[in-house]
Specification:
Blueprint (H helix, E strand, L loop, with lengths): L6 E2 L9 E3 L32 H8 L4 E3 L2 H9 L6 E3 L1 H7 L6 E3 L11 H13 L4 E6 L3 H13 L2 E7 H6 L1 H9 L3 E5 L5 H9 L7 H13 L4 E3 L6 H6 L2 H12 L6 E5 L4 H12 L7 E5 L6 H4 L1 E6 L8 E6 L9
Parallel strand pairs: 6-7, 6-9, 7-8, 10-11
Antiparallel strand pairs: 1-4, 2-3, 4-5, 12-13
Helix pairs in contact: 2-4, 4-5, 5-7, 11-12
Protein backbone atom coordinates (compact mmCIF):
# COMPACT_ATOMS: atom_id res chain seq x y z
CA UNK A 1 0.00 0.00 0.00
CA UNK A 2 1.28 3.42 -0.98
CA UNK A 3 0.52 6.55 1.03
CA UNK A 4 0.90 10.14 -0.06
CA UNK A 5 0.25 13.35 1.82
CA UNK A 6 -3.09 14.08 0.19
CA UNK A 7 -3.99 10.80 -1.50
CA UNK A 8 -4.67 7.31 -0.15
CA UNK A 9 -3.99 4.64 -2.76
CA UNK A 10 -4.57 0.89 -2.70
CA UNK A 11 -3.02 -1.82 -4.85
CA UNK A 12 -5.16 -3.40 -7.59
CA UNK A 13 -5.24 -6.61 -5.54
CA UNK A 14 -7.14 -4.67 -2.87
CA UNK A 15 -10.15 -4.40 -5.19
CA UNK A 16 -13.08 -5.98 -3.28
CA UNK A 17 -13.78 -9.65 -3.94
CA UNK A 18 -17.43 -9.58 -2.83
CA UNK A 19 -20.43 -7.30 -3.04
CA UNK A 20 -22.03 -6.15 0.23
CA UNK A 21 -25.80 -6.65 0.32
CA UNK A 22 -27.92 -4.21 2.35
CA UNK A 23 -31.14 -6.29 2.27
CA UNK A 24 -30.26 -8.64 5.18
CA UNK A 25 -29.55 -5.58 7.35
CA UNK A 26 -32.95 -3.91 6.89
CA UNK A 27 -35.35 -4.01 9.84
CA UNK A 28 -38.34 -4.37 7.50
CA UNK A 29 -38.51 -5.92 4.00
CA UNK A 30 -38.91 -3.59 1.05
CA UNK A 31 -42.40 -3.26 -0.49
CA UNK A 32 -42.68 -5.65 -3.48
CA UNK A 33 -43.05 -4.53 -7.10
CA UNK A 34 -46.66 -4.58 -8.33
CA UNK A 35 -48.22 -5.78 -11.55
CA UNK A 36 -49.59 -2.51 -13.02
CA UNK A 37 -52.63 -4.30 -14.49
CA UNK A 38 -53.74 -6.19 -11.38
CA UNK A 39 -52.06 -4.34 -8.53
CA UNK A 40 -50.83 -7.69 -7.20
CA UNK A 41 -47.21 -8.27 -6.08
CA UNK A 42 -44.98 -9.85 -8.71
CA UNK A 43 -42.13 -12.29 -8.20
CA UNK A 44 -38.58 -12.05 -9.51
CA UNK A 45 -39.40 -14.28 -12.49
CA UNK A 46 -41.34 -11.37 -14.04
CA UNK A 47 -38.10 -9.39 -14.26
CA UNK A 48 -36.20 -12.11 -16.15
CA UNK A 49 -37.66 -11.09 -19.50
CA UNK A 50 -35.75 -7.82 -19.17
CA UNK A 51 -32.68 -8.47 -17.01
CA UNK A 52 -30.02 -11.20 -16.83
CA UNK A 53 -31.09 -14.04 -14.53
CA UNK A 54 -28.17 -13.56 -12.13
CA UNK A 55 -29.05 -9.87 -11.69
CA UNK A 56 -32.62 -10.82 -10.81
CA UNK A 57 -31.34 -13.35 -8.27
CA UNK A 58 -29.17 -10.64 -6.71
CA UNK A 59 -32.19 -8.31 -6.65
CA UNK A 60 -33.90 -10.51 -4.04
CA UNK A 61 -30.90 -12.25 -2.45
CA UNK A 62 -30.61 -12.23 1.34
CA UNK A 63 -26.94 -13.23 1.34
CA UNK A 64 -24.81 -10.69 3.19
CA UNK A 65 -21.94 -11.05 0.71
CA UNK A 66 -21.98 -12.15 -2.94
CA UNK A 67 -18.78 -13.07 -4.75
CA UNK A 68 -17.69 -10.84 -7.62
CA UNK A 69 -16.89 -12.92 -10.72
CA UNK A 70 -13.19 -12.90 -11.53
CA UNK A 71 -13.77 -11.52 -15.03
CA UNK A 72 -15.73 -8.59 -13.62
CA UNK A 73 -13.15 -7.94 -10.92
CA UNK A 74 -10.42 -8.05 -13.55
CA UNK A 75 -12.16 -5.41 -15.64
CA UNK A 76 -12.63 -3.21 -12.57
CA UNK A 77 -8.89 -3.46 -11.85
CA UNK A 78 -7.99 -2.73 -15.49
CA UNK A 79 -10.27 0.30 -15.32
CA UNK A 80 -8.59 1.92 -12.33
CA UNK A 81 -9.99 0.24 -9.23
CA UNK A 82 -9.43 0.77 -6.43
CA UNK A 83 -9.99 4.48 -7.05
CA UNK A 84 -8.04 7.03 -4.97
CA UNK A 85 -9.33 8.66 -1.80
CA UNK A 86 -8.24 12.30 -1.90
CA UNK A 87 -7.71 14.71 0.98
CA UNK A 88 -9.38 18.05 0.16
CA UNK A 89 -6.65 20.20 1.69
CA UNK A 90 -7.48 23.28 -0.38
CA UNK A 91 -11.14 23.12 0.61
CA UNK A 92 -10.22 22.69 4.27
CA UNK A 93 -8.04 25.79 4.08
CA UNK A 94 -10.70 27.80 2.27
CA UNK A 95 -13.28 26.88 4.89
CA UNK A 96 -10.81 27.46 7.72
CA UNK A 97 -12.06 24.24 9.26
CA UNK A 98 -10.23 21.85 11.57
CA UNK A 99 -12.19 19.01 9.91
CA UNK A 100 -10.41 16.57 7.64
CA UNK A 101 -12.32 16.23 4.38
CA UNK A 102 -11.82 13.36 1.94
CA UNK A 103 -13.47 12.64 -1.40
CA UNK A 104 -13.58 9.46 -3.47
CA UNK A 105 -12.21 9.82 -7.02
CA UNK A 106 -14.74 7.86 -9.09
CA UNK A 107 -14.07 10.30 -11.91
CA UNK A 108 -10.77 8.62 -12.77
CA UNK A 109 -12.45 5.65 -14.50
CA UNK A 110 -12.22 5.51 -18.32
CA UNK A 111 -15.81 6.75 -18.59
CA UNK A 112 -15.55 9.41 -15.89
CA UNK A 113 -17.90 8.06 -13.23
CA UNK A 114 -18.84 5.17 -10.94
CA UNK A 115 -21.23 3.68 -13.51
CA UNK A 116 -18.78 1.12 -14.92
CA UNK A 117 -18.88 -0.80 -11.61
CA UNK A 118 -22.35 -2.13 -12.40
CA UNK A 119 -22.25 -1.91 -16.21
CA UNK A 120 -19.38 -4.40 -16.28
CA UNK A 121 -21.27 -6.80 -14.02
CA UNK A 122 -24.54 -6.59 -15.95
CA UNK A 123 -22.80 -7.07 -19.30
CA UNK A 124 -20.90 -10.07 -17.93
CA UNK A 125 -24.00 -11.78 -16.56
CA UNK A 126 -25.84 -11.14 -19.84
CA UNK A 127 -23.01 -12.56 -21.92
CA UNK A 128 -22.87 -15.64 -19.71
CA UNK A 129 -26.49 -16.28 -20.72
CA UNK A 130 -25.56 -16.00 -24.39
CA UNK A 131 -27.04 -12.51 -24.83
CA UNK A 132 -25.43 -10.57 -27.66
CA UNK A 133 -27.02 -7.14 -27.30
CA UNK A 134 -27.89 -4.68 -24.50
CA UNK A 135 -30.36 -1.79 -24.71
CA UNK A 136 -30.45 1.10 -22.28
CA UNK A 137 -31.13 4.78 -21.74
CA UNK A 138 -28.83 7.57 -20.67
CA UNK A 139 -29.29 11.16 -19.54
CA UNK A 140 -26.05 13.12 -19.44
CA UNK A 141 -24.20 10.18 -20.99
CA UNK A 142 -22.27 8.74 -18.04
CA UNK A 143 -24.33 5.56 -17.90
CA UNK A 144 -24.40 5.18 -21.67
CA UNK A 145 -20.62 5.52 -21.82
CA UNK A 146 -20.21 2.83 -19.16
CA UNK A 147 -22.54 0.42 -20.97
CA UNK A 148 -20.75 1.09 -24.26
CA UNK A 149 -17.37 0.27 -22.73
CA UNK A 150 -18.71 -2.80 -20.88
CA UNK A 151 -20.17 -4.15 -24.12
CA UNK A 152 -16.86 -3.52 -25.87
CA UNK A 153 -15.06 -5.50 -23.17
CA UNK A 154 -17.39 -8.48 -23.66
CA UNK A 155 -17.87 -8.29 -27.44
CA UNK A 156 -21.53 -7.26 -27.30
CA UNK A 157 -23.68 -4.72 -29.15
CA UNK A 158 -24.97 -1.67 -27.28
CA UNK A 159 -28.11 0.28 -28.22
CA UNK A 160 -28.40 3.55 -26.28
CA UNK A 161 -31.30 6.01 -26.16
CA UNK A 162 -29.98 9.37 -24.98
CA UNK A 163 -32.25 12.16 -23.72
CA UNK A 164 -32.52 14.50 -26.71
CA UNK A 165 -31.57 17.71 -24.87
CA UNK A 166 -28.40 16.05 -23.53
CA UNK A 167 -27.69 14.50 -26.93
CA UNK A 168 -27.61 18.01 -28.40
CA UNK A 169 -25.83 19.69 -25.48
CA UNK A 170 -23.13 17.03 -24.97
CA UNK A 171 -21.95 15.85 -28.40
CA UNK A 172 -18.61 14.60 -27.05
CA UNK A 173 -20.39 12.04 -24.89
CA UNK A 174 -21.91 10.67 -28.07
CA UNK A 175 -18.46 10.50 -29.65
CA UNK A 176 -17.15 8.53 -26.67
CA UNK A 177 -20.00 6.03 -26.83
CA UNK A 178 -19.54 5.53 -30.57
CA UNK A 179 -15.79 5.17 -30.06
CA UNK A 180 -16.57 2.17 -27.84
CA UNK A 181 -18.80 0.78 -30.60
CA UNK A 182 -22.28 1.68 -29.35
CA UNK A 183 -25.20 2.79 -31.47
CA UNK A 184 -26.76 5.95 -30.00
CA UNK A 185 -29.93 7.85 -30.92
CA UNK A 186 -31.61 10.92 -29.38
CA UNK A 187 -34.80 10.18 -27.43
CA UNK A 188 -37.66 10.52 -28.20
CA UNK A 189 -36.73 8.80 -31.46
CA UNK A 190 -38.45 7.29 -34.49
CA UNK A 191 -37.06 3.83 -33.70
CA UNK A 192 -39.85 2.88 -31.28
CA UNK A 193 -43.62 3.13 -31.27
CA UNK A 194 -43.59 5.15 -28.07
CA UNK A 195 -40.89 7.50 -29.36
CA UNK A 196 -42.89 8.16 -32.52
CA UNK A 197 -46.00 8.83 -30.42
CA UNK A 198 -44.20 11.44 -28.32
CA UNK A 199 -42.66 13.12 -31.37
CA UNK A 200 -46.03 13.26 -33.12
CA UNK A 201 -47.60 14.99 -30.12
CA UNK A 202 -44.58 17.23 -29.47
CA UNK A 203 -42.06 17.38 -32.35
CA UNK A 204 -39.60 19.50 -30.33
CA UNK A 205 -39.84 17.50 -27.09
CA UNK A 206 -36.49 17.77 -25.25
CA UNK A 207 -36.85 14.23 -23.94
CA UNK A 208 -36.75 12.85 -20.41
CA UNK A 209 -35.08 9.89 -18.78
CA UNK A 210 -38.53 8.33 -18.36
CA UNK A 211 -39.16 8.47 -22.11
CA UNK A 212 -35.70 7.06 -22.87
CA UNK A 213 -36.32 4.18 -20.44
CA UNK A 214 -39.62 3.42 -22.19
CA UNK A 215 -37.87 3.32 -25.56
CA UNK A 216 -35.07 1.08 -24.29
CA UNK A 217 -37.55 -1.36 -22.74
CA UNK A 218 -39.65 -1.43 -25.93
CA UNK A 219 -36.47 -2.08 -27.91
CA UNK A 220 -35.58 -4.95 -25.57
CA UNK A 221 -38.92 -6.77 -25.80
CA UNK A 222 -39.01 -6.37 -29.60
CA UNK A 223 -35.51 -7.70 -30.31
CA UNK A 224 -34.24 -11.24 -29.90
CA UNK A 225 -31.17 -11.94 -27.80
CA UNK A 226 -31.38 -8.53 -26.09
CA UNK A 227 -31.49 -7.60 -22.42
CA UNK A 228 -32.24 -4.27 -20.79
CA UNK A 229 -29.65 -2.76 -18.50
CA UNK A 230 -30.25 -0.13 -15.81
CA UNK A 231 -27.77 2.17 -14.09
CA UNK A 232 -29.58 2.90 -10.84
CA UNK A 233 -32.74 2.34 -8.73
CA UNK A 234 -32.77 -1.47 -8.39
CA UNK A 235 -31.24 -3.47 -5.53
CA UNK A 236 -28.74 -5.37 -7.67
CA UNK A 237 -27.34 -2.08 -9.00
CA UNK A 238 -26.78 -0.78 -5.45
CA UNK A 239 -25.19 -4.11 -4.58
CA UNK A 240 -22.72 -3.94 -7.46
CA UNK A 241 -21.74 -0.39 -6.50
CA UNK A 242 -20.76 -1.47 -2.97
CA UNK A 243 -17.15 -1.75 -4.10
CA UNK A 244 -16.94 2.02 -3.56
CA UNK A 245 -17.72 2.00 0.16
CA UNK A 246 -15.64 -1.10 0.81
CA UNK A 247 -12.59 0.61 -0.67
CA UNK A 248 -13.23 3.74 1.41
CA UNK A 249 -13.36 1.65 4.59
CA UNK A 250 -10.01 0.02 3.73
CA UNK A 251 -8.47 3.39 2.84
CA UNK A 252 -9.64 5.10 6.03
CA UNK A 253 -8.53 2.13 8.13
CA UNK A 254 -5.06 2.43 6.60
CA UNK A 255 -4.69 5.97 8.00
CA UNK A 256 -6.61 5.21 11.21
CA UNK A 257 -9.49 7.55 10.39
CA UNK A 258 -13.16 7.02 11.29
CA UNK A 259 -15.69 9.19 9.44
CA UNK A 260 -18.33 11.28 11.21
CA UNK A 261 -20.26 12.09 8.05
CA UNK A 262 -20.69 10.51 4.63
CA UNK A 263 -22.04 13.01 2.09
CA UNK A 264 -22.98 12.09 -1.45
CA UNK A 265 -25.05 13.22 -4.39
CA UNK A 266 -28.21 11.20 -5.03
CA UNK A 267 -30.46 10.84 -8.05
CA UNK A 268 -31.47 7.23 -8.58
CA UNK A 269 -29.29 6.32 -5.62
CA UNK A 270 -26.52 4.03 -6.87
CA UNK A 271 -23.62 6.38 -6.09
CA UNK A 272 -24.88 7.20 -2.60
CA UNK A 273 -25.78 3.58 -1.85
CA UNK A 274 -22.46 2.31 -3.14
CA UNK A 275 -20.63 4.63 -0.76
CA UNK A 276 -22.82 4.29 2.34
CA UNK A 277 -24.24 0.75 2.40
CA UNK A 278 -20.96 -0.97 3.35
CA UNK A 279 -20.66 1.42 6.32
CA UNK A 280 -24.26 0.73 7.35
CA UNK A 281 -23.63 -3.02 7.10
CA UNK A 282 -20.70 -2.79 9.54
CA UNK A 283 -21.91 -2.17 13.09
CA UNK A 284 -18.67 -0.45 14.09
CA UNK A 285 -19.75 2.57 12.04
CA UNK A 286 -23.02 2.94 13.90
CA UNK A 287 -22.42 6.63 14.70
CA UNK A 288 -21.67 7.79 11.16
CA UNK A 289 -24.28 10.13 9.65
CA UNK A 290 -25.17 9.67 5.98
CA UNK A 291 -26.32 12.83 4.16
CA UNK A 292 -27.80 12.69 0.65
CA UNK A 293 -27.74 15.78 -1.56
CA UNK A 294 -30.13 15.90 -4.52
CA UNK A 295 -30.53 18.38 -7.41
CA UNK A 296 -32.99 21.24 -6.91
CA UNK A 297 -34.26 20.67 -10.45
CA UNK A 298 -35.43 17.15 -9.56
CA UNK A 299 -36.17 17.09 -5.79
CA UNK A 300 -37.80 13.67 -5.57
CA UNK A 301 -36.69 12.91 -1.98
CA UNK A 302 -37.47 16.32 -0.47
CA UNK A 303 -40.61 17.20 -2.44
CA UNK A 304 -41.82 13.93 -3.97
CA UNK A 305 -44.53 11.58 -2.67
CA UNK A 306 -43.64 8.15 -1.28
CA UNK A 307 -45.95 5.88 -3.25
CA UNK A 308 -46.08 3.30 -6.01
CA UNK A 309 -45.26 4.65 -9.45
CA UNK A 310 -43.89 3.54 -12.80
CA UNK A 311 -40.18 3.72 -13.48
CA UNK A 312 -40.78 5.08 -16.98
CA UNK A 313 -43.13 7.46 -18.79
CA UNK A 314 -44.99 4.93 -20.94
CA UNK A 315 -45.88 2.73 -17.96
CA UNK A 316 -44.05 -0.36 -19.19
CA UNK A 317 -42.23 -1.17 -15.94
CA UNK A 318 -43.72 -2.78 -12.84
CA UNK A 319 -44.88 -0.30 -10.21
CA UNK A 320 -42.25 0.32 -7.54
CA UNK A 321 -42.56 2.02 -4.15
CA UNK A 322 -40.52 5.19 -4.41
CA UNK A 323 -40.20 8.88 -3.71
CA UNK A 324 -41.63 10.29 -6.93
CA UNK A 325 -42.48 13.57 -8.60
CA UNK A 326 -44.55 11.60 -11.11
CA UNK A 327 -43.42 9.30 -13.90
CA UNK A 328 -44.27 12.03 -16.43
CA UNK A 329 -42.13 14.66 -14.66
CA UNK A 330 -39.97 16.79 -16.96
CA UNK A 331 -37.13 18.78 -15.32
CA UNK A 332 -37.11 22.52 -16.11
CA UNK A 333 -34.70 23.70 -18.79
Amino acid sequence: MKREKTRILLDSEDTPTHYVNILPHLKNPLPPPLNPATGEPIGPEALMTLFPEECVKQEVSMKKRIEIPWEVRGILMRSGRPSPLQRAVGLEEALKTPCRIYYKREDVSPTGSHKLNTAAAQAYYAREEGVERLATETGAGQWGSAVALACAYFGMEAMIYMVRSSFEQKPYRGILMRTYGAQIVPSPSDRTEYGRKVRKESPDHPGTLGIAISEAIEDTVNHDNTKYTLGSVLNFVMLQQSVIGQEIITQLDSIEETPDYLIGCVGGGSNFAGMTYPFIAEERFGEVQCIAVEPKACPSLTEGEYRYDFGDTAGMTPKLKMHTLGSDFTPPK
